[in-house]
Structures are given as C-alpha cells and as structure tokens.
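just leaving the lab so this will be short. below you get a single protein, a line of residues and a line of whole numbers that encode the local backbone shape. id like you to explain what the token line says about the fold, in plain words if possible. thanks a lot i owe you, the record is right below:

…
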Amino acid sequence: VEIWKAAGMKLHNVKFLWASEEINANSDEYWLKVMDIARRNNLNRIKRCATIMGRDESDDLAVAQMLYPCMQCTDIFFLKADICQLGMDQRKVNMLAREYCDDIGQEKKPVILSHHMLAGLKEGAAKMSKSDPMSAIFMEDDEKDVNEKIEKAYCPPLKVKENPCLEYVKYIVFGMFNQFTVERPAKYGGNKTYKKFEELEADWVQEKLHPGDLKPSLAKAINKILQPIRDHFATNPEAREILSLVRSFRVNKASEKTDDKK
C-alpha cells in the first residue's frame, strides 16, 4: 500500500479487502462455494489451473494444490469482483470462474484482463521470482541493486524474444516515458533517443545497439522511475518502519534456506 501511495495512486476511492478476514467472517458461505466449484469440475480441468501456482498440469500435484484453484476461483465471487486484472499465468483460473457462471446460469460474468508477464532477468526464466532477488527488480530496490541486477541480466545480442532487458524497455520504460535514450560515447554512435520500441528493435537485430550500451541506460531509466518510491520511504517514518520489517522477513527466509541446505 505504501508503494502505491508513493507511486501516485489516489486512494480516496480505494477499499482494501483482506481475503482472510472476509473468509473468517463468512466461512460457511465461502466453503460451500469452494465445494460447489470443486464438484462441478473434473480433475483434468482443475489441473489446467496449476500455472497459478507456478506448476504444470503434468506435475504430481498434492491434494491441497488441487483445492487451491477452487479457492481462488471462489475469491472472485466472494469479493464480488467485476473485473479480474491479473497476469497471464492466472488466466486459466479466471476462465474457470466464467465457466462456473455458465454452470450455475449466472449471466453476469467477471471481465478478465490478463496482462503480459515480464520475463525473469536470468536466462531461461519465464517470469520473475520473489524467491530469487536477482531475477527481478523490486519496487524497493535501491540504485545499487538495480544497477547490479541489470548489469548481470541476460541480454543476448540480436535476440529480441525472451530477452528480459528488451522487455523492460518495451513494457516499463516506454510505458512510463514514451521514449528511451541510450547514452554512449561518440565512437560507438553517440547518444540516441528512440521514440518507438520498433526503432530500438530494428537497431538491435542489426547489431547497431550493443548490450553494453543498452544496460546502463536501462538501469538509469528504471532508477528514475523508482526514485519517488525511495524518497517516500526515506522521508515517511511509518513507511520506513514497514519496509524494515519486510526486509527482515526476507533476511530470515534466506537464513532458513541456508540452514536447510546445511
């Protein structure tokens, strides 16, 4: 919530609902809906929703993992959501909700808006991972973190698809600024401002733009986007305390993983 505030989100008409509180207050209604969705679908249909958990339908799923899609589907109705705006990896369970409307004869169906999933910064990472800090840029990352992550990011010359650095330029930088400036020495072509991603893409596949020039400019653009967030946490005592607490959880979790390996 603090990050949304810092990013400029207007909260006067926003109401946050905690699913745990809603479920506990109306558990009889909630679990009846979960069971109804479960009984109207076979195992194969529920397995197709395994992507919402970062799993594949061919995986050996636990019973609890089979139940989870029914619960997430129930959330849509339980929270009375008119629009479900989530990543593409959540699309199958959102479509399950629309199918359930057909099953029970409900004409009003939730509108599904599925957005593009940014690739992870490491080679072969289909999407970012919270469990691997180096695979993604977090909103609370400082300038040094961003520079290091972008410097180490997978960014193969000539290749456009499955290139996380180009994805960040296309979906984040152009989305914020409608342009992208590459800063480089005159002997390598000098500075160049791209007004459209297609212009950058053309230079990339013709090797007119090198990863060594793109990466520092990308890091600079991302740091510009994140600076208001950093300023908010630096000047707001309450927000700073929350951030410290979140970071302590990450440190503890990392320590637990290290202990497990030992």
Summary: The CA atoms of residues 47 and 61 lie 8 Å apart. The mean pLDDT is 90.
